[in-house]
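Minutes, project check-in
Item: structure for the 128-residue chain
Input as provided by the requester:
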Amino acid sequence: MSDAVRVGAAAIIAAICAVVIRRQAPEIALALGVCAGALVVLFCSGALSSAAAFLDKLAAVGGLSAAVLGPVLKTAGIAVVTHLAAAFCRDAQESALASAVELAGTALALAAALPLMSAALELMTGLL
């Protein structure tokens, strides 16, 4: 719970500072937002490594190969990075760039999921 409080407090403080600074220096407010986002991700790094370790253990117990688990993790990572990048672009009043980032993220997520989809296709053709 303390990590959630730290993340929430950091985000609220950064948001308040950005709102105050934005009137005088919008580029500094944007940089503050990027730095605050990086700080939040840093706060979550321990939880992310614990989750990754659990998924590795789950894959070992369940007999899943890295070829199955890898695309799922890559797709989730692409979704998170795309969402953050698009939010920062929108914050910088660049909505067209944010849309392009989201489109690129969708294409990259589909490409990352191709090995999983082909494994599912092989499984289905093997059952027929």
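Outcome recorded: The CA atoms of residues 52 and 109 lie 19 Å apart.
No further action items on this chain.
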